[in-house]
Automatic annotation (TrEMBL), chain A:
Enzyme class: oxidoreductase
Superkingdom of the organism of origin: Bacteria
InterPro entries on file: DPD_II, FAD/NAD-bd_sf, FAD/NAD-binding_dom, Helical_ferredxn
Keyword terms, alphabetized: Oxidoreductase
Pfam families reported in the protein's UniProt record: Fer4_20, Pyr_redox_2
Name this polypeptide is given: dihydrouracil dehydrogenase (NAD(+))
UniProtKB/TrEMBL annotation, chain B:
Subunit comment: Homodimer.
Organism: Texcoconibacillus texcoconensis
Function in brief: Involved in pyrimidine base degradation. Catalyzes physiologically the reduction of uracil to 5,6-dihydrouracil (DHU) by using NADH as a specific cosubstrate. It also catalyzes the reverse reaction and the reduction of thymine to 5,6-dihydrothymine (DHT).
EC number(s) reported in the record: 1.3.1.1, 1.3.98.1
Name of the protein this chain belongs to: Dihydrothymine dehydrogenase
Cofactor(s) for this UniProt protein: FMN
Domain 4Fe-4S ferredoxin-type: 334-366, 368-398
Molecular function terms, GO-annotated: dihydroorotate dehydrogenase (fumarate) activity; dihydropyrimidine dehydrogenase (NAD+) activity; iron-sulfur cluster binding; metal ion binding
Keyword Protein biosynthesis: no
Pathway membership: Pyrimidine metabolism; UMP biosynthesis via de novo pathway
Keyword Signal: no
Enzyme class (EC, first level): oxidoreductase
Amino acid sequence: MDRNQTLVYEPVEIEAFDFRRAMEEASRCLLCEDAPCSTACPSDTDPEKFIRSIRFKNVNGAAETIRESNILGASCALICPQEKLCEQACNRCGIDEPIQIGKLQQFAMEYERKLDKTYLSKTDTYIDKHVACIGAGPASLACAAELAKEGVEVTIFDENEKPGGMLRYEIPPYRLPDVVIEQDIRQLEKLGVKFELNHKVTIDEKEQMKNEYDAVFVGAGTWEAKKIDIPGINLEGVVNALDFLEQAKVSNGKSPSLGRVVIVGGGDVGMDCASTCKHLGADSIYDVFMETLKDAPATEKEKVESFKIGVPLISEFKPVEIIGDEKVEKVKFEHITNGSTMEMVADTVIMAVGQKTRQDAQYWNQRSDIFTGGDMVNGGDTVVQAVKEGKEAATKIINTTFKN
Amino acid sequence: MKKDLSIDFLGVHCENPFFLSSSPVCNNAEQIAKAFDAGWAGIFYKTVGIEGMNECSPRFDVLSDDPSSWSGFKNMEQISEMSLEQNVEEIKKLKENYPNKVLGISIMGSTEEEWRTLAKAVTEAGADLIELNFSCPQMTSHDMGSDVGQNPQLVSDYTRAVVESTHVPVIAKMTPNVAEMSDTAIAAANSGAKSVSAINTIKSITNIDIDNMTGKPVVNGKSSVSGYSGNAAKPIALRFITELAQCEDLKDVELSGIGGIETWQDALEFMLLGCRNVQVTTSVMQYGYRIVEDLISGLSHFMEERGVDHLDEIVGKAVNNIIPSEELDRSFMIIPKVDEDKCVGCARCYISCYDGSHQAIEWDNKTRTPKILEDKCVGCHLCINVCPVTDCITPGDIVFKDGQSNSRSEKEIAQQLVYL
Ligand SMILES: Cc1cc2nc3c(=O)[nH]c(=O)nc-3n(C[C@H](O)[C@H](O)[C@H](O)COP(=O)(O)O)c2cc1C
Ligand code: SF4
Ligand code: SF4
Ligand code: SF4
């Protein structure tokens, strides 16, 4: 057994609990009545119920509970910020540590994948209905699954080559391996959902789809980085985080040399950039952000991970200028209260200061004849929140369109 | 997923085989309504006597190595605290509100006359089945409970008295506080019982309180021998069920299995040994009626995986594979093997093999690795059971003892073993 972790950018899978460890962890669960963990899950994945199933040796039942409420159950197990949701709410915190709900969810989902199980089935309630979902990201996938379970024929359109949206193009593979994304997508395929990929839907096309389909859902994500307006922001070597993560992913972690990297931003995306740079072999990496360490929006887990891989986190500094001619040479920061300044040498500067809603989102969100959900509406939240919104949109489609 | 889990028990259609056994999990109508809504197909109502009981406090003790799950549970409770009249009212309410659920009513008298009175009263109130409690080990009267269940003559007399007083099927609930259960079971069957249920609780002292110098629980400085149940009792229950299932004279008697059922697998084990019905108490006392959700779901998934459409197909499937120990195949040994990549170097296998078996593991304290010595190993698999790492020590080569063989291939023998 190897006690040292090795860094692999694209692992085939992420180590899961085996049966014994899952049983040990499940037996720590207090099996609460009206459990706060379940209330805290945006998409009603119902941890209390699936942990109880594991506890009583019904792993199939656990996986089924997860699937029925969360079509991205396998991905969410790995990427949900559990410590801010279910695990934060866990009553076991009153005794010692919360139940590792994400690990138990992963255990049940691995069981599904390794045994190629199918838990979802279709009814024929709305068998003659057709719906188009635009965007193959979390909200759209969730909306599609919910409708397909009721018999609706759903087609998902996406401009990219592969479905998954930000799961596929933004979250680094060492946090969410491809096999897991594929596993979630396969459940949709089994429900008969069709994918039209490499297909960018134009505005005209959308208007036309409104006539061809019984309903149209748009869940096209955010995909637009916030920009801060400081001198030098357009210099060569300054990249935005989403482009950087996507580039790393499509090139399978074989990006050109990054040199000395400075990351600006203390959210999960910033931390993802930091560890991706580590995987990609950057010469040095610093992550600088305006918040205090405690208030930086990344999860505790991600911050600790950054420390572990040796990325210094520098808090309470904001960038004021990027220095260099043509190419970036240095970044200048100023302390947010005490006036200290700092200049850091850099070959690459990654701006991870948040996303903003894309320009066309406003338009679609205001339309009453089109349904929307996900980051495009909420401006950038968790995957599990997008799942919730996709499910809600499906219910709305059924109630307002099909039932009339 | 929901499969059709329905099964007929004593000619009564049950939506699934899961019943609550007679105990405080079915004390009254309001409580039992919740159980029915949760999914239990039927109940055996808390044993009804002529008079309500006077109980002690506290009355439970627990055996466990981690507080979240009890391995064993001891109780000092007798039968219903309510009188016959009160219980009859409760049963009537249930019958009216839940016509599709199955009402088994457990009764216990101390004379033939009392057994008749009880049988008539609960039949009129709406019992679908009557269970005779010959098995409570902590009654304050020696004319009742497991003292009766150890005496075939009394079992026979009381069973006959009840069968003559009711038209519904009668089940005799047996005590495990006997060397063999078949004598009393046959006595009940010959007197008209259509079914036997087993087991009731096992006489026990779970713990001694070292401050008070008495057993637990301590009741004003004293304690008593009383009934043990829960998961630790399952092996004993399964053993008695096997005895009953294999008994020629009980071929026409349907079995109801009780003792330590927590999971769908536990329930399935009883069914594979011939039970058409299973009953649960202790795990419901600990976790609540909701455990039936995983009993139903787990068994449904099992059936789906194995292509079983109806539970009748699996009842009794294991009965003939339990054979006397003198008939076991002793021609071979299965020598374990160690996966060095998985081994974490704890040496538990080495310690156990040396101190508790055949000194067949050599320990290298430089590399911290075990090596199994094939010429000394006897294939007992103590090491596999003690190793803390999943699939680290696994069954390996099959070695036939000098020149012997059997009709199965090595592969077939090896595939029979699964260690979780
Ligand atoms: C607190 C308690 C009270 C019980 N009372 C009765 C009873 O009144 N009548 C009866 O037949 N069995 C009684 N039992 C025995 C159970 O019905 C059952 O046979 C036994 O507990 C084994 O099953 P289990 O391991 O699922 O609990 C009682 C058991 C417990 C724990
Ligand atoms: S809140 Fe925690 S302890 Fe309670 S059911 Fe949920 S996971 Fe278990
Ligand atoms: S018990 Fe298992 S893990 Fe421990 S030394 Fe033996 S083989 Fe290795
Ligand atoms: S099977 Fe038994 S004898 Fe052989 S190594 Fe293991 S513990 Fe020792």
